[in-house]
Amino acid sequence: MKKIFPLLAAALLCAVAAAHAAQLNKVAAVVNGQVITMVDLQKAALPELARARINPENPAQADAAREILGKVLDLMIMDILLGQEAARLKVNVASSEVDNELAKMMRARNFTKEQFEAQLAAQKISLSEIRKNMEKSLLRQKIMGMAVGRRVVVRPEEISAYYESHKNELYNREGLQWGFIVYHPQADGKSLAAKVKSGSLSFGETARKYSIAPNKDKGGIMGPVLWENINPDLETRLAALKPGETSDVFDIANEGMTFKAQVRLFRPGGGEEKPLTLEEATPRIDALLREPKARERFEEYAAGLKNKAIIDIRL
């Protein structure tokens, strides 16, 4: 069983390689004159196809493969539109900005540069690919800030209402640490996560045995929660927990693949939690309420870009 996933990935690579010559001149889509080839699409979709154990060359899986290719193609189209919009707005991402993001990632994981590079090598992920993905993410954030951010408003009465409904959940977050489990693709992440959350399985032992996340050998402990640097999705999930609690299972994407994951929030040594006043809690509440509004505005903005673009999909 342990060899199924790698063998499938290898088979998919062979299938893509075999089809390369035939697909070389085929076009998946043209976006405002910019071409996405079938070869590029298949390469981008390979991790998701492998995760779903789908072989695009198998006629019995043609519909499932086509659905995944369609989703990946939509993401590639959006990347092109955002890149073209960035050029129009004269927005760019400097190499130093990517360097800063890499440094934040290493600090959040308590990694030295050498440890980080060793982790990438172990997962067969290139640093150049990480930098490329970070550049896309930073570019998206900048465009959101310019075109979307000013349209997002969180009113004082919304903050007050949230505070009254959640005041028992708002406390001093200094000194908190977190744990992180990313379940191996061959593990039953959903079932294991439920047992960890209920307490019937130890978070630390489960991390050591089943996790592929950094610090698995330390029981998944990632160290202090650096709220300003942590991934926004993980920050939102941790913010919803009280110290000592573990989250439900959730999906997390990494390098084109989707994994089951779980986080834990805890205060070493325990101790009584100090509730925050409305004034102290306002910045945090503002961020929590602003994020879903910004996401909704961005989806509207993205739809507008698509409507204005000339997109020829040939999949």
Keywords:
315 residues; 4-stranded antiparallel beta sheet; 3-stranded antiparallel beta sheet; Chitinase A, domain 3; alpha+beta; globular; 7 strands; 56% helix
H-E order: HEEHHHHHHEHHEHEEHE
- Tell me the fraction of residues in β-strands, as a range: 5-15%
Q: Average pLDDT, to the nearest integer?
A: 84
Which CATH architecture of the domain at 171-266 is right? Roll
* Strand order within the widest beta sheet: 4-3-6-5
Label the structural class: alpha+beta
CATH class of the domain at 171-266: Alpha Beta
Please work out how many helical segments DSSP would assign. 11
Tell me the CATH topology of the domain at 171-266: Chitinase A, domain 3
Uncertain spans, ≥5 residues at pLDDT below 50? Answer: 1-6
Q: What share of residues is helical?
A: 55-70%
Number of strand elements: 7
Rg (C-alpha, Å): 22 Å
Write up what this structure looks like:
With 315 residues, the protein is α+β, with helices and mostly antiparallel strands. It has a domain at 171-266: Roll (Chitinase A, domain 3), CATH 3.10.50. The chain contains 11 helices and 7 strands. Strands 4-3-6-5 form a 4-stranded antiparallel β-sheet. A hairpin with a 2-residue loop joins strand 1 (27-31) and strand 2. Helix 1 packs antiparallel against helix 2 and helix 4 (95-108) packs across helix 6 (127-148). The longest helix is centred in the C-terminal third of the chain and has 31 residues, at 278-308. The radius of gyration is 22 Å and the shape is globular. The two termini are 34 Å apart. The model is unreliable at 1-6 (pLDDT under 50).
